[in-house]
Amino acid sequence: MFRVFYSFTVLLFLFSLSFASEKVVFIDIQKVVTSSKAGVSAQAELEAQAKKFKEEIEKKQKAGESPSQVQAFAEQKQRELMEKRQKIAQKFMETLQKAITEYSQSKGYKLVLDKNSLLYGKPELDVTDDFLKFFDDRYSTVR
User: Fold this and answer.
1) Residue 134: domain span
2) Distance of alpha carbon 69 from alpha carbon 74, whole angstroms
3) Which of 7, 78, 111, 130 could form a disulfide with 24 if both were Cys (CB 3.0 to 4.6 A apart)?
4) pLDDT tens digits, residue range 77-114?
5) What are the tens digits of pLDDT across the range 28-38?
6) For residues 32 and 96, what is the distance between their CA atoms, to the nearest angstrom?
7) Cβ of 44: how many Cβ atoms within 10 Å?
8) What is the number of structural domains in the chain?
9) Quick check: is 62 in a domain?
10) Within a domain: 143
11) In the 8-state DSSP scheme, what is residue 125?
């Protein structure tokens, strides 16, 4: 509860700054993750890896390995997939942060917020689509 109150207080303080001289915008990060070329590419890579692991597990089952061996193998592959997912997510967020910084500096924005953290924002402050074009032009895959 304190965390929510603190976040709300900070947001109120930031919004109390004069909007005339400060450029404040917001971006729907979730939309960028799911709609950007880099986000779609990362998701496709994970899905391909999951499909490959599933095929390997099915081969072991068809080869007649014991259920316990197949189960242990499946658990190992699940851990590998989770580790890969974490690495890709971390790389993606680092790339996204870099892109937001570049974008903000090029546009002269003083503050960029995540749409999902806002209680309300005027629609004209939503620069998601413009940022998405910027991001796709520079980052088609996660580096």
Assistant:
1) 2-138
2) 9
3) 111
4) 999 999 999 999 999 999 999 999 999 999 999 999 99
5) 999 999 999 99
6) 9
7) 10
8) 1
9) yes
10) no
11) G
